[in-house]
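Support request, please re-run this one:
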Amino acid sequence: MPSIAIIGAQWGDEGKGKITDFLSATADYVVRFQGGDNAGHTIHSKGQKYALHLLPSGALRDATINILGNGMVINPEALVEEIDMLQSLGKHPHIVISNRAHVIMPYHKLRDQKAEDTQNIGTTLKGIGPAYQDKAARVGLRMGTFVDEALFKAYLDQYYDTVKGHLNESKERLFETYQPYIEALKPRVKDTSVILAEAFKTNKRVVFEGAQGTMLDIEQGSYPYVTSSSPTAAGIPAGAGVAPKHVGQVLGIVKAYNSRVGEGPFVSEMEEEKAEIIREIAHEFGTTTGRPRRIGYLDLVALKHAHRINHFDAFAITLFDVLSAFDTLKLVTGYQLDGSVIDYVPAELETLEKCQPVFQEMPGFKEDISHLTDWNALPQAARNYLKAIEDITGVPVGMVSVGPDRRQTISMTKIF
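Re-run finished. Output below.
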């Protein structure tokens, strides 16, 4: 039962889409297990760029079955638009949607905006948090109910009065608006837990694709500046509807530097002059929001925190070629707190805000590495940087991405 989990080891935007797409070449299934269209995975293939928000990154592979798991919250309109977009480009993805996944409705977006006005978390305003709130409150709308017209009408009859304050349309008009999406998605809605159980029984190859990153985890991230789900390996069994033993290898996706969108403490945040250089080279603007990302030096304290939670078998280092713009590189190896150096991420927001980075400086490599395909061809300074990551975190580097295309990938070991 070969499987691999693709997990963001930082604050999201690590390049998980490219790595999932790369590994899905031999996968039978690719499974999203949490989040919604607040995620954004950009994939480059044969000169074409694809921006995916809900669909698993295996959607570009004709033979791959792509599952939207029960742990997701799904905007039907956004999902249909994304499928239509791929079809217009000649792609016809095999998509299956869990009947237990929850549905984002218009009132979730309006509630999200109202909450952001007071909380200032920095959300994408996609209605993600309010949809998960309704799920936890046991009043949510699940996909199996949504695509059954009689059940959907009954749901609206029961709950419309409680949400109409966040709507500008009648119950009847709301149903009419969603009719085309019901028709488009209904054939794809199934019990995906049953499908995956059969996949593992018949020894199919499964890739679990996380959205966001470990430092945005609702349990273990930089709370309250986090997402509303668990994008760690621990979130897979519940979010995909599989037994924990079916989670095989865990690959941590690590951007060669740090970035994050939204508010909250960011210990490794770098000088704006350097950050702007990286933004321009790497197009560091949110796939979903278009907002400029905050940029930081690679934080190994946070990476060790992520490793403790996920127990990574290996790291895949992405956007490594971007670092060739600098003469000197820095790694954050500790946090200075009240006169002492600590090597862990404090849970309390107020404590984390007081932390200052402790750096290890290293010579840079001012060479174009985007054409390289072999580890030994990398400049010595580049290999030293990767070796320092391994030594300090205790996690081997198994893959290095030196450009956005599938072919710009150096594999040091067989991962999947």
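The longest strand covers residues 328-337. The longest helix spans residues 149-163.
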